Amino acid sequence: MKIYPDAYLKQVEDISIEFLNKHKIKALLLDVDNTLVDYTKKMTDSVRKWAKDLKGQGVKLYILSNTNDKTKIENISKELGIKYHNFAMKPLKKGYKKAQKDLGEKSENIAIVGDQIFTDIIGGNRCHMFTILVDPINEKDFWYTLWKRPIEKRIKSKLKINEK
Ligand SMILES: [Mg+2]
Prior knowledge:
Elements lengths: L6 E3 L7 H6 L4 E4 L14 H12 L3 E5 L5 H11 L2 E3 L7 H11 L6 E5 L2 H10 L3 E5 L8 H4 L2 H8 L8
Parallel strand pairs: 1-6, 2-3, 2-5, 3-4, 5-6
The structure holds magnesium ion.
């Protein structure tokens, strides 16, 4: 099992069009909790602008979230004007495959972006997609995420932050 991401960046806004072109990535699968929005479901203007800019450059964006809070995901999807699949059960392959089918891209041209190694990254690696780990927006976490953080920290300590 491959646990390491292909790239590690501090935040989604560091994913530039140059970076995506360099790695031949045409579509991004975006995690929501602690990747796009914080614990209080708030999205910053800078994330909003980043998503709009990439869309404008022709990058396909798609929300792939494990949450069962459909209203939250619907609001974000509407706001950004992008498709979503919630209750995706990452790291299982099913959700990634559905997203890939919707996007109509090859797996090597798709990147998953998320803050969790054990869901976002491992699932993406299993589907042979490019995997981008970002730091969680908040230090505060949901109780079901908390236990994994020390392990992630240890893995991250071996990673170098990629160039934007
Ligand atoms: Mg997350």
